[in-house]
């Protein structure tokens, strides 16, 4: 079997993004486990606001192709108003079952405040609707300004959780997919 390919999506547009630091650390851990990796930094993609009549706008095809080529996908987001970022939502809207179904997905949320969990729950629901297998372990970085500095995670416990996410993205990259869940069978996508 070939080594798994893990992509990490940075759902933040900030120049000094804490989310990027987290995804980079998780991808480094995946590489240490023998995976090939690719960082998909949404700052580098031209993805206009999704319009179902313009599914191939900008860099949409290139982004979707990178997701499709992955065995495991790490989704990283800052927490905005208790949920995941609009830029990540927009990027995910350019994808569907072709890119995500039966893929392993790991979740990372980074918050300025102390409670990043709801963003992870929202992303988990989106992934279920796309019939992904979401890693039970998830990583959260609360009060990120206190735990990330100079491009690295400074809190040992948080760093360990983020690294574990990357390791499990490799460990479960080729897990036998579950039968379609209720959410995915009822998700007709953006066809209407």
UniProtKB/TrEMBL annotation:
<dbReference type="GO" id="GO:0005829">
    <property type="term" value="C:cytosol"/>
</dbReference>
<dbReference type="Pfam" id="PF03358">
    <property type="entry name" value="FMN_red"/>
</dbReference>
<comment type="similarity">
    <text>Belongs to the SsuE family. Isf subfamily.</text>
</comment>
<dbReference type="InterPro" id="IPR029039">
    <property type="entry name" value="Flavoprotein-like_sf"/>
</dbReference>
<dbReference type="InterPro" id="IPR005025">
    <property type="entry name" value="FMN_Rdtase-like_dom"/>
</dbReference>
<protein>
    <submittedName>
        <fullName>NAD(P)H-dependent oxidoreductase</fullName>
    </submittedName>
</protein>
<dbReference type="GO" id="GO:0010181">
    <property type="term" value="F:FMN binding"/>
</dbReference>
<dbReference type="InterPro" id="IPR050712">
    <property type="entry name" value="NAD(P)H-dep_reductase"/>
</dbReference>
<feature type="domain" description="NADPH-dependent FMN reductase-like">
    <location>
        <begin position="5"/>
        <end position="144"/>
    </location>
</feature>
<dbReference type="GO" id="GO:0016491">
    <property type="term" value="F:oxidoreductase activity"/>
</dbReference>
């Amino acid at each position: 079997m070939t080594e798994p390919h893990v992509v990490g999506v940075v759902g933040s547009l900030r120049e000094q993004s804490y989310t990027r630091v987290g995804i980079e650390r998780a991808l480094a851990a995946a590489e240490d486990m023998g995976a090939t990796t690719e960082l998909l930094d949404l700052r580098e993609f031209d993805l206009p606001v999704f319009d179902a009549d313009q599914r191939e706008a900008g860099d949409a095809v290139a982004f979707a192709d990178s997701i499709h080529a992955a065995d495991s996908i790490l989704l990283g987001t800052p927490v905005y108003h208790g949920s995941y970022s609009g830029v990540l939502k927009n990027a995910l809207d350019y994808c569907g079952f072709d890119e995500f179904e039966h893929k392993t997905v790991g979740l990372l949320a980074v918050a300025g405040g102390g409670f990043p969990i709801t963003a992870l729950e929202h992303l988990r629901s989106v992934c279920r609707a796309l019939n992904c297998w979401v890693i039970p372990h998830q990583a959260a970085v609360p009060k990120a300004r206190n735990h990330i500095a100079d491009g690295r995670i400074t809190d040992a416990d948080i760093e360990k959780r983020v690294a574990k996410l990357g390791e499990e993205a490799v460990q479960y990259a080729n897990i036998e997919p579950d039968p379609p869940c209720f959410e995915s069978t009822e998700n007709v996508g953006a066809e209407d």
